[in-house]
């Protein structure tokens, strides 16, 4: 099982700890690419027009300025730096024992700055979306699409890839033909009608991530095993709004969709 997550816009900036060590990050083949992006985002973030280029508002100007000192800022595990709805539900920072080891093996967090990270990789807080056209580097999704196959294709081959990424981050890497690619979508059902949800989808994907990491038994290796594992989350007696009450698997081998159906 390979679990793909987007980063979160919201991040908790570490207040102490050694700075990032690029040579110690997982996927070490990306070190040169990471250095390139770090250099260019640092230069950009010192410019007065940096928020406009990064596509953010003045309210996060302090976060943009942090980009100028990423190699000296305190770092912490990505599982603690990334916050927000999905990461709160996934609970990566609180995992222990078998669940933590499974997360370190299986979870890959996509990032406009780092390309891809594991939960234990120590990084500083930063502000950089995969959708940014970074001066000196270009569109980050296109840039990383040239580098990520070297570090992800082999791990994905012959396994099930559980894709919880948004479209922006999905553009940076597509699983190879030898992998069973399952995209996770969330819909809200009311009165027999269904509507795709966005904000609440982050929570549901986080709940699914947590469940897949802490459940007993071996991780799923096929789309059918993934669907069966997801069905374990269904509480048929629950009437709670947002609770998953159905799981559906569609599509053909190689590219499938797992739909989590929530109560309205």
From TrEMBL:
GO cellular component terms listed in the entry, alphabetical order: cytosol
Signal peptide: none
Alphabetical list of Pfam families matching this protein: H2O2_YaaD (PF03883)
InterPro entries named in the record: YaaA (IPR005583)
UniProt record, GO biological process: response to hydroperoxide
Protein name as catalogued: Peroxide stress protein YaaA
Primary gene name: yaaA
């Amino acid at each position: 099982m390979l679990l793909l997550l987007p980063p979160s816009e919201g991040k908790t900036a570490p207040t102490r700890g050694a700075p990032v060590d690029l040579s110690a990050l997982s996927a070490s083949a990306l070190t040169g690419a990471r250095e390139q992006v770090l250099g260019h985002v640092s230069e950009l973030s010192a410019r007065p027009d940096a928020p406009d280029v990064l596509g953010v508002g003045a309210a996060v100007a302090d976060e943009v300025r942090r980009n100028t000192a990423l190699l000296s800022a305190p770092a912490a595990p990505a599982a603690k730096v990334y916050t927000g709805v999905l990461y709160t539900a996934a609970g990566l920072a609180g995992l222990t024992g078998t669940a933590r080891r499974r997360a370190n093996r299986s979870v890959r967090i996509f990032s406009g700055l780092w390309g891809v990270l594991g939960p234990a990789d120590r990084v500083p807080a930063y502000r950089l979306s995969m959708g940014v056209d970074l001066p000196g580097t270009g569109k980050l999704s296109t840039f990383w699409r040239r580098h990520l196959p070297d570090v992800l294709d082999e791990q994905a081959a012959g396994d099930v890839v559980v894709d919880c990424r948004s479209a922006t981050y999905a553009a940076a890497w597509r699983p190879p033909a030898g992998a069973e690619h399952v995209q996770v979508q969330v819909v809200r059902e009311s009165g027999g009608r269904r509507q795709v949800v966005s904000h609440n989808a982050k929570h549901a994907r986080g709940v699914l991530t947590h469940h897949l990491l802490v459940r007993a038994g071996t991780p799923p290796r096929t789309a059918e095993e993934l669907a069966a594992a997801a069905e374990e989350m269904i509480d048929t007696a629950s009437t709670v709004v947002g609770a998953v009450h159905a799981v559906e698997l569609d599509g053909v081998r190689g590219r499938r969709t797992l739909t989590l159906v929530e109560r309205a």
